[in-house]
Design a protein that fits this description.
The chain is mainly alpha-helical. It has 19 helices and 4 strands. Helices cover 65% and strands 3% of the residues. Strand 2 and strand 3 form a beta hairpin. The termini are far apart. One of its GO terms (molecular function) is guanine transmembrane transporter activity.
Length: 455
């Protein structure tokens, strides 16, 4: 009897220590609620392990190794967020920055994969310095909110263009006139992708856990049945960061090449996007979970931003795209997640997927296209955040957004947004609203283009 009592007392002590570390009771939660919240977040964002390898694979990255790297980044980043920052936020390779990495840096500008990984690494270093010092606060005080929101809108449009062109829904116009036209609607990839998008919207409206993943899996099964190009190559294998041809992306980054003048504007775009994306996402999730202090600041917000940025450094080392806190974390907080235990559960679940890399090559592009389109559409909601009471600021944001997609280049959109803001302020007599920081950033960006250093 005494032995049983001792065991119960030991178990209660361990549970109490666990509770105290994560402040579970203090935040009005319990272990079961935190575990279920972690499972909910995982199901909401697990689609990334097939979308990210698919996107980077189109740019020449080995799909199987990217799958493993994506799981490692999500696993390690989420665990660090949970254990160190004690926040219910999951980290993963950002879909928008993954698209920028593949289609702008590699395919668009022609940089080699090692140089691009070096750019991801440098971006992570800069973002970490920004997060760990007062620079981030300075940037957020001085960067116009219109351009910040406009960048999000533009990336959303960029994702839509990438997804639709990838399945042949938007194609190059062979005739004179506009450069693009609608593709063959009767083709299997186009019809199944748009149907999948509609299903995702319906499932998300119903708040079905893992709705995006269910659509990706469903379309992949249909592809396996009806598309001869989709073949089954197995279910599980030992995780490896070495491709079948012997090449490895781990520690293959070219930092010297990433510091060339032609690459620096893109690193700037990655940093700026990460600063606003991370801050906005973390604040939104923290607000929903009521994890703001009496001054309206995010509890452990500095640790959260640092974890987010260090995850990008890790991404560059293992051969993946930049990392970020996923907005899908809000699904977990809506399910009751209030502590880092939620993120810890997410991280462990992602690490458990390391042995399923053959599944990545089973997923065709038209299966992940609906997810890309859906994420792009969600990012267009930034339009509602534009303050049209400040007309010049709002219009500059829209200019930034539109020219990101028209040029296929985030930096170009940001440059035009800044330039139009400065000129617009001066011409409207609102020059007093300008500060020296905005003017200097505008001059620097324009100089990159006038000097021919930007691509």
């Amino acid at each position: 009897m005494s032995s049983i009592d001792d065991q119960k007392g030991k178990s209660a002590g361990q549970s109490g220590g666990f509770d105290r570390y994560f402040k579970i009771s203090e935040r009005g939660s319990n272990v079961r609620q935190e575990v279920l919240a972690g499972l909910t977040t995982f199901l909401a964002m697990v689609y990334s392990i097939v979308v990210v390898p698919n996107i980077l694979g189109q740019a020449g990255f080995p799909v199987e190794t990217v799958f493993v790297a994506t799981c490692l980044v999500a696993g390690a980043g989420s665990i660090a967020m949970g254990v160190w920052a004690n926040l219910p936020m999951a980290v993963g390779c950002a879909i928008s920055l993954t698209a920028f990495t593949a289609f702008s840096l590699v395919l668009g500008q022609g940089h080699s994969i090692p140089v691009v990984l070096g750019a991801v690494f440098v971006m992570g270093i800069l973002f970490t310095l920004i997060s760990a010092t007062g620079i981030r606060a300075w940037i957020l005080r001085n960067i116009p909110m219109g351009i910040a929101h406009g960048t999000g809108i533009g990336i959303g449009l960029f994702l839509l263009l990438i997804a639709t062109s990838g399945i042949g829904a938007v194609i190059k116009n062979p005739m004179d006139g506009l450069p693009v036209q609608f593709g063959d609607f009767k083709s299997f990839p186009v019809m199944i992708a748009f149907a999948g998008l509609a299903v995702i919207i319906g499932l998300e409206k119903l708040k079905v856990p893992g709705g995006i993943l269910l659509v990706i899996v469903g379309i992949s099964v249909l592809g396996l049945i009806f598309d001869p190009n989709v073949t089954y190559k197995g279910l599980a294998s030992m995780p490896t960061l070495v491709a079948a041809d012997g090449t490895s992306l781990i520690f293959s980054l070219d930092i010297k090449g990433a510091l060339q003048m032609t690459v620096l504007p893109s690193i700037l775009a990655l940093v700026m996007t990460a600063v606003f994306d991370a801050t906005g996402t973390i604040r939104a999730v923290a607000g929903q979970a009521n994890l703001l202090d009496k001054d309206g600041q995010i509890i452990n917000g500095g640790r959260a931003l640092t974890t987010d940025s260090v995850s990008s450094i890790f991404s560059g080392l293992v051969g993946a795209s930049p990392a970020a806190v996923y907005i899908e974390s809000a699904a977990g907080t809506a399910a009751g997640g209030r502590t880092g235990l939620t993120a810890l559960v997410v991280g462990v679940l992602f690490l458990s997927l390391l042995f399923l890399s053959p599944l990545a090559s089973l997923v065709p592009g038209y299966a992940t296209a609906p997810a890309l389109m859906y994420v792009g559409l969600l990012m267009l909601s930034n339009v509602s955040r534009l303050d049209f009471g400040d007309f010049v600021d709002a219009m500059s944001g829209l200019i930034c957004a539109v020219f990101i997609v028209l040029t296929g280049n985030i930096v170009t959109g940001i440059m035009l947004g800044f330039a139009s803001l400065v000129i617009g302020r001066i011409c409207s007599g609102e020059w007093r609203k300008l500060n020296i920081s905005v003017v200097l950033i505008s001059i620097a960006l324009v100089a990159f283009y006038v000097g021919g250093w930007a691509i």
